[in-house]
Amino acid sequence: MIDWLRKEMIEPEIELNGSTLPIVLKRHARARRLTLRMAPDGSAVQITLPQWARSREAIAFAHARHDWLAAQHAKLPERRAPEPGGTIAIRGQQVRIEWAEDAPRRPLRRGDAVLLGGPREALERRLARWLEREALTLFEADALHYCAAAELEPVPVALSRAQRRWGSCSDRKRIRLNWRLIQAPDFVRRSVVAHEVTHLVHFDHSPAFHAMLGEIYEGDIKRADRWLKEHGRGLYAAFG
Asked: CA geometry: angle at 108 spanning 103 and 111, to 5°?
């Protein structure tokens, strides 16, 4: 038996570009084949597999695609944890982080800077929580706007911390939106909200869906989709 396969039956991990990453298996009742991908933040290799598939076969599949995974891993943006004097993206703009231990702990946006205090080691967590609150406020306003444009009753909005999906509308009664979109330009964030509101009516990507989306979204949807394709992974670089 191949040595790496013998080892990976016990330890599901893989080395990519000098880093050892876990191989995370997720079984899905509707999966018909193995689906392999990198986590957006580069923290793991993820495999979705059918209920009947064997774990060791899935792990072997990941190793067989080592070169492809290494290439995907190399494309990931470098992790840039927020730190005093650095910047974070808010609505497509780089904002400077100004920190002082004796300043108020709750972040405060002031022009092109965000001010905050408290323990240095908790700075990233406080900024992330603040951005989540800011994101929810924007999402709720966006959803209200697009529901009105679609002549729908407003629906509740919740935040998502999904690793791949920017939004979801699983039950047609509420929508969930990835909080990291607060970092993207407004036209990108709003395109995702408009997309999910359209799913309240058309739970597919049929011509009727695209026609309605084109009616309620004021921008160029192809431009927004292109931005996410090119820069979406970068939204995972600042916060772990």
From this structure: 120
One domain, residues 169 and 228: yes
Q: Pairing between strand 35-38 and 45-49?
A: antiparallel
Kindly state the percentage of the chain with pLDDT values over 90.
Answer: 58
What Å distances lie between residue 61 and 42, 48, 65, 177, CA to CA? Answer: 18, 12, 6, 32
Helices H / strands E in the chain, number of each: 7, 11
The dihedrals phi and psi of 48, each to the nearest 5 degrees, come to: -95, 130
d(C-alpha 182, C-alpha 129), whole Å: 12
The domain that holds 132 is classified in CATH as 3.30.2010.10
Pick from 185, 186, 192, 191: nearest CA to 160: 192
pLDDT tens for each residue of 175-203: 999 999 999 999 999 999 999 999 999 99
Identify the three-state secondary structure at position 226: helix
Sheet holding 35-38, edge to edge: 13-16, 19-27, 45-49, 35-38
Last residue of a domain, one of 11, 43, 75: 75
pTM: 0.76
Q: For position 213, what pLDDT does the model report?
A: 97
